[in-house]
Structure formats: C-alpha cells, structure tokens
Amino acid sequence: MNQCPLVVDLDGTLLRSDMLFETWLGFFKASPARVFEPVLWLLKGKTHLKHRLAAETHTDVETLPYNERVIEMIVAARAAGRKVVLATATHRLYADKVAAHLQLFDEVIATEDDVNLSAQRKRDKLVDEYGREGFDYVGNSQDDIVVWEAAREAHVVEPHHGVLRRAKSKRMIDSVTIDSPPKWRSWMKALRLHQWIKNLLIFVPLLAGHRIGELPLILTGVVAFVAFGLCASSVYLLNDLLDIEDDRQHAYKRKRPFAAGMLEIKHGILAFPLLLAAAFALSLALLPYAFALGLAGYYVITLLYSLWLKRQMMVDVVTLGVLYTCRIIAGALAFQIDLTFWMLAFSMFMFLSLALVKRYAELGEARRRGKEGQTRGRGYFPDDLEMISSLGAASGYIAVMVLALYIQEQNIIALYRHPEVLWLSCPLLLFWISRTWMLTHRGEMHDDPIVFAVKDRVSLVVGALFGIIFWIAT
Predict the structure, then answer these.
(1) What distance in Å separates the CA atoms of residue 167 and residue 68, rounded to the nearest whole number?
(2) What phi and psi values does residue 88 have, to the nearest 5 degrees?
C-alpha cells in the first residue's frame, strides 16, 4: 500500500479559478462604493487582504468550477488507502468550506494568521510535516515549482504559461493533465463576437435616410461598427465577471468561459478596460465627437444595468430596449443624420418586446426545472410568465402600429415612388412577432432572440422579404 500522501493545490488545480479573485469580485459586486478598500488591506500584507475578503464575502463553494480530472485523481488515491491533503494559499475559511463540501480530504493546510501559504512557505510546511520527497504534489503555477522540487512525484494540472517548460527543464514532471479547450476559442466565446451582429443597427439611420449608396458614410459606419463592437465586448466581459456566481446557477450560462473556469478572472479584469480604451481611441480618432459621447452613454447605462438595474423588475427590460436603441442613436451620431420620432418609437417598442422574450425564455427554463422562488439575480418569479408574455406581445404589436403610422405620414410617402407597397411589411412583421412569441412559449427560443433570429431560416427569409419590400417601394 502506498503510504505517501497526495497533496493537492486548490487555486488553478482542484479549482478552475482563483479564490482571491473570486472573493474580490464578490466584494466589489456587494459594495461597489468600496472598490479601492482592498488596496488598503493589501498594504498590510497579502494575508491580511485574504482574511478581510474571506470575512466580508459569501462565495458559494458548491457551484465553483472544480476540475473533474483532479477529483478523479483524489478518489483513486483514497481508494488506494492514501492520505489526501488540501494545501492552498487560499484563506482557511474558504479552504475548510471547500473541503467540507467535497468530503475528500483528510487534512487541510491553508493561509491563516500571518502566514500566506504559497511557494517556499508551502514547501517548508509540507517538508516539516512529511519530509523531503515524503509526499506527491499536484499543482499548476510558478509558485508550485519549488514545492515540486521537494516532492517525490510532481503532477502538473492545467499549467500557467511557462510552468511546463520550467518544470521540464528541472526534470521533475511525473504527469501532465490538460483538458481545457484552446484559450483562443474561450476568448472568442467570452468576447461574444457573434453578438456583434446587433451592431448592424448602427446602419439603420443610413438606410432610413436613403443614403446607403454613399461610400464615405459606409466607411464611417464600418469604423463605428468596430468601435461599438469593442465597447460591447468590454461590457460582456465585465458583465460575465460580475454575474459569475449567478451564471453558475443557470443551466446554460454556467458554461460561459469565466463561470466555467476556462478563462482566468484576472485576465478578464485586465482585458475589459483595454477593449474599452481601444473603442474610445478609435472613436475619438476617426469619428465625430458626438459618437464618442453616445458610446459613453451606452457604457454608463450598461454599467448601471450590470451593477443594479438588471435586478429591478421591468426596469431591466426597459433598459435593454434602451440599449438596443442606443445603437441606432449612435449610428445617427456617426453619420450626422437626424433621427425621426418614428424610428425612435418603433425601435423602443420592438426592442422592449425582444427584451421580454429574453426574460420569458429564462423564466420558462426555471419553471421547467421546477423552481418556484425568485430567479437568482433577477426581479421575477416563474409565475410571472403569463404577464410577461402579454406585455411582450402587446409591445411588439404596438411596434407594428407605429410602422403603419410611419407609412401613412405624408413626409415619409414623399421619399418613396411606390409607398403603397410598404403596407406589405405590416403583416410580415405581425407574422414574425407572433411566431417569435409562440416559439418562446413552447420553449424553443434561444435566450437571446437576436442570435436566434440570425440562425433561424424563417426569420432570415422574413428579413430578406422586408428588405425587398422597401427596395421595391423606393
């Protein structure tokens, strides 16, 4: 029987995340006004920082992204009669919670008092307990290299950049475990480049103004599209970071890169301001200043939405409708084209309907899973479904009525050679809105109706027919 204990690290090894950043995010979300307070705690030492964050946060360890391959390794060691130890730089408060949840460890060694248990301190502690080469160690970071040097066997799991090369140079590796998808694929998913399709709304003022054939304006639109996309991706990253605990409770959102631990939280914290800076640099350099102001307004509203508004009943869906409309307003500012009352009214009612579709889809999934209480991070209950569908359908139909009134406006009729053809767009839009809500009611809707529409063949045909109708009328 192998009596040599198996010692397992937590952050980045057993856990596809880092508890220091997990707790910092939890603290920031709960107390955004105190965002700089942890900096003062850090001045007193990293151990003090970890202690204060652990004491002031309540991260749910049951939903954290654990590495199943490491758990399998632990289970095999226990089956062989070996002692298994959790040795981590995470504060003892959370280390004990993880151990109590998993029920796999015979002992826990963690940061406490004035000792930050990492690198040499962890090595010295383990050598004192088990002797040099008296334990096998599972880790992933640069700090773990000195621990591997003192271990009998070195097991590398999801290594940080450069760790594998350094460990190999010292000829200390006994096994390597890597089963995460490529980082570039996770970043593509986190940035949600497919969601950039929404930014095509920037070109709506150009289409409505019958100036789509002007090449300089098209080039301006492309720059605005990219700038808005960079800003939106920055928003998505920030939103995913702030919602990381809520996403882990969701059937589908738990697979998002940060929630699933496929990307490190610290990299997201670094990336979102860089993307935002790039968006504004591009805007200020190549577009009218008014567009940059519109982009700033969009970002501020989104930030308020992520921090507070999304948890307020009905305020959240109205805000989503405003954020969609902001793209049209931003396009008008970029092209320096005046917006009409009709365009703003139509977009507000239409996007409110789509926002309610999104919320209905989430609540419908919660009801199918048997949940009865208020949904996590939202202001709704599954029993609100019927009211939401009524409000959503009504908003969509009002958008059709606005379109009908737009077609009848004398100033608008003058823009078209065959304005009577435009009436065909009304039943077409009625059909699409009704079908969208029927699919949502049946549970067949993606949680983002825009993404669904882009992939749905019927929606694409309706969109093409809509375009043809306006082209014939013109």
Answers:
(1) 23
(2) -145, 150
CB 145 within 8 A of CB 163: yes
Record the tokens describing residue 181, joined without a space: 């998808």
Instruction: Answer yes or no: is 397 within a domain.
Output: yes
Same domain, 289 and 169: no
Query: Which of 426, 232, 281 is closest to 346 using CA atoms?
Result: 426
Shared domain check, 103 and 217 = no
pLDDT in tens, 163-197: 888 877 766 677 777 778 888 999 999 999 888 88
Percent residues over pLDDT 70 in the chain? 98
CA–CA dist 398, 439 (Å, integer): 20
CA 316 to CA 388: how far, in whole Å?
Answer: 13
The amino acid occupying position 401 is: M
Residues of the domain holding 387: 183-473
How would you class 285 by CB atoms within 10 Å of its CB: exposed for 0-12, middle for 13-18, buried for 19 or more? Answer: exposed
- Residue type for position 386: E
* Burial class for 171, CB neighbours closer than 10 Å (0-12, 13-18, 19+): exposed
Tell me the C-alpha distance between 7 and 332, whole Å: 60
The domain total for the chain is 2
